[in-house]
User: Fold these one by one.
Assistant:
Number 1:
Amino acid sequence: MLPSTPEPAPKSTPDAAAAATLVIVLASGSTEAAQFALRYAATAAAMDVGVELHAISADAVARFGRNAASPSLLVQIRQAAEFGVAVFVCPLALAEQGLRVEDLIEEVSGVRGAASLLEAALAPGARLLNF
């Protein structure tokens, strides 16, 4: 038999929030998808959630190139980085764009492939968003 009143949800603690990780996958190369991904990334980081954003397609990686980041997108990227969002690009997508690490904006934290993305996404406490 079900209880007549639902049990209250467990209380969130600062330690629990700090242990959580949000892994955001940016597969779309559209400006709109990048803006949404960055908005959620910055918001979660401002809530003391660890955030990794992984650009995995050639078009998504291009958004983080020195000559390709639009001014409005660059503002969002910088804000996310200021909040502590780690931005990673896929090495295969980087090569497909004909870009080198030196061609990326300074807010990019590094180059990580599929294994690193899966490791982050499968870690205890991780949550995944896809754009």
Number 2:
Amino acid sequence: MPKIFLDIETTGLSPLVHRVVCIGMADEEKEPGTIIGENERDLLLKFWEALPDGAELVGFNLSFDIGFLTLRCLRHGISPVKLLAAGKTDLSKLVRDIVPGERYMSLARLAKFFGIEKRTDGAAIPDAWERRDLNAIQEHCEEDVAIVKTLWQILRPLAEEPASQAQKNYLKDLGVPFAPGVTKQQASQLIDKALREAP
């Protein structure tokens, strides 16, 4: 399953009133690249063309990105099935799982903790969009994808931690088959999927 490091830039926080203006992606070999433009439908279609089948998406606060992309795709009559079927690793969730009391966890804060330089600020994206400063948006998005990729290398052991016995028991109770070496993250995804699909 190819890993795709993902970040999106939007004009605000609500997919009901705001839009996607930039999508940043990288794989484990390539440097970050972006899909950017003023026509949101074209931008989303280019993203679908670039996203490999069976990809595992890795991001920070990934549920925001996935939810935003899903609703914006539906708005433009584009099926989000490929996105919803992708594996997902949310780095913010990995950290919150081991430090549950940590309420505020931003990409900038985690990058600073690990000594990773972050020069741009996502709060400036709506203003950059108003000025149509696509270069500033692209620079920020590429930087965030690069940081996500670096954080993945640091946090990878958390994603590869073996599933707990409680998770394995729950999977058995749900009747969900799983591999002997299932990880904690994979078990969590299998449980979530089974509960979503339950009648």
Number 3:
Amino acid sequence: MDSQQHLFSDPDISFLAQAKLQARVLVPVLRAIRERIGREEADKLVADALRDWSREQFKQVASASQDTKLGHWQTIWGDVFKKIDEGFEMEVLQEDDATQDFNVTHCPYADYFQALDEPELGALLLCEQDVHLADSVGSDAVEFNRSQTIMGGAKFCDFRIRLHNKAPKSDKA
């Protein structure tokens, strides 16, 4: 996998459009599995599979990166912000070389998945990607914290990010 090709790198498709395409396939499959084995087991099965897939995607991108871990984060995080859809609102609390603190106060992704009555799937496809990206980079470069999401029913998503400028180059797998 080319280090520049990752979940967020296609400039022609927004996050919401990508999530809607994924949902068109996953929602009927998830609902069929629920009918067969029950909601709890089905949701766990799908969640585990999507988490494993996402972590592997970010692990491959990180292992291919020639940049510092922090540079790797900044490249992908920059791609994320290029793809944020209209209707997405946030309040910046602090932004400098070491800190990115902001609250998302309106999320069209949460609106969409809540309308489908599938906010847990939306959280897996969208919200958890931030966590997997941070994990792939490593806490020596980026500390990512979010205690709540609109997708999970909160009034806002609280992003608290600490950047460590002395992080080493990305590890090779």
